[in-house]
Amino acid sequence: MRSAESGLESYQGPETEKGVVLRLSGARVGYPGTVVLRDVDLEIRKGEFWFLLGPNGSGKTTLLRTLLGLTPLLAGRAVRDPRHAALARTGFVPQQCSFSPALPTSVREFVSLGRIGGDRPRAEREADIAWALERSGLGGLAARDYWSLSGGQRRRALVARALVRRPSLLVVDEPTEGMDVASQDDFLETLETLHRDGGSTVLFITHHLEIAVRYATHVALAGEGRVLAGTRDEVLQPAALARAFGNRAATMARALATGSEA
Amino acid sequence: MIEAFLASWPLFGDTYLAGWAVACLLSVVGVQVVARDQIFLGAAVSQASTLGTAVAIWLQGVTVIHAFQADAVTFLFAVTASLLTALASAREAKPGGESAEAVTGWIFLVGSSVPVLLLAHSPHGLEEVHRILFSSILGASRTDVWLFGGLLGASLVAVWQLRDRIVLYAMDPEMAAAVGMRPALWRVGLAAWLGLAVGLSIHSAGMIYSFGCLVLPAMAARKLCREVRPMFVVAPVLGLATAIIAFVVANTVDLPPAQLTVALQCGVLAVAWLWVRLRSGLSAVGDAG
Lengths: 262, 289
Description:
Chain A is of the alpha/beta class. Chain A is 36% helix and 24% strand. Mean pLDDT of chain A is 80; it is low at 1-7.
């Protein structure tokens, strides 16, 4: 079955039997008239923790939008297993959510909005909200005003909003930008726990290499219009970094060796 | 006071019912306007309706085409102008393009200046423009009651069904797109709802009443509620309650009901502001204790 809007095929067959959640083959990604990434081959399997890495403007978010089916594929083939990667089973954590602080909302209301478009039964609403808040470290704060939360807690509320639909695939778009180191670590530990205990497939977008070094099982490195994808150890090599990050590659390579900030 | 009001019912019953339905309808529509911080758009859409009316009256003066002479044409022009303004504001801003706010401001100013220029030499036309600006709802008819009652019913059903999606779209359009909502469709749909409701209301109830009922109850509800969803209940209740009280009082002391309703709604909003300050003050004292 092919979605006319996205060009993504929902597919259950030999590929998905092997646990393939999402697959791009020979994909050309971008917008009409502008190719951002070409010849993208990427296979994401159930339970993997993927990092989409690359400098600013390298096409990470465009690739993400294509994987989610929000931006149509320009060429090539995209397959997703509806059991694990249908929109109803995908949780999305955006970079930020900036609505007017004058708008009143409780943490509970904010999180409950994540159920829209999901396939969870209505009767499970309260249980899902409580579970998502608990897993995000916001248990007990449901009745609090969203705007009374700290910056780190608001990021957690974004995660809870994605989790409330009990996703098989969790997509996280650079949520650690602007967070202090302690909050960043706290946030990533939460994601790691969700991945480890819940068996969720995670797709994390960032340009911070050191985070990927610590948490990734697989990496897709975007740069110069192409994507190099594979296991962390296959991809995070000096030559690949040089291609993606140009003259910042040396710094990146040192970061790989030391695990420090790139 | 109540007896005097009830005694006036045979003469003004339809006016009262139409006015209350308009207050309720616009208060519901206003929640999504206020939630998306588009209060100025409400003013521009209202003003554009005046422009539509003025253009229709001007055409009636310069053309001999019989079809333009009908009242229905004036009505149609007013609604179309509101609808087009709302839709113009719904277009997606492109890099290097003009912002929606700038376009809204331009439309507001065109709607404020051009009608007077168009009808400067037409005493009857200026009178009509002043009637719209002044907000006299005395001319509302039984048809208006059915029209606004129907629109209100349809709006309430739609809000009940789609409230979560409306709230998510107002808060986070990017997330709304990520969960499968179509942003372009929602932008146009919400704009059309606003343009239609305001355009129709202006013709029957005037600009001040329509704009007031659109934004003031929703702004007060925003202050009084702790979540967005209850605003869809609190705003129309406030809109309806203030309109009922104002109509009864206006009938007794012989004041214009539209202006009294809006003044009352301004008062309610001021009280809501004070209440929020008092509540946060009490909460700070409680925390310190």
